[in-house]
Amino acid sequence: MVAEVIINRTAKKLNRTFDYGIPQELEDLIIIGSKVLVPFGKGGKIEEAFVVGIKEQSQYEVKEITKIEDNLSNKQIELARWMAKRYFCNVSDCIKLMLTPGTRNKQNKVQEKTIRSSLFKKRKRRNRFCH
To answer: pLDDT above 90 covers what percent of the chain?
Structure first.
């Protein structure tokens, strides 16, 4: 089995599907709407991607999906494709809107930690002057 995925990036060149093999141990778990991790590019860097289609075989030599994370419904994927066409944007951007808040991407986690540490430093400075 082969999954058609869209890489979770905003680059216009990546607004298309890529084929990845589905490992046998994940065949029952991966459905349209699954958020997966895949090796991408020449360096094989692991990237987030969304499964938007499943087919029997590919005309290309494919790499395999590394890991499955979450699932969206088939209707959500269809809606994301419609939104991308209607509003002239990337499908991956529309798919991100379907995700639970706080799980959209890795940058959110980094920003949240930065904000928390900044608030902690401000509180610490205030408490120093209160004594």
So the answer is: 44
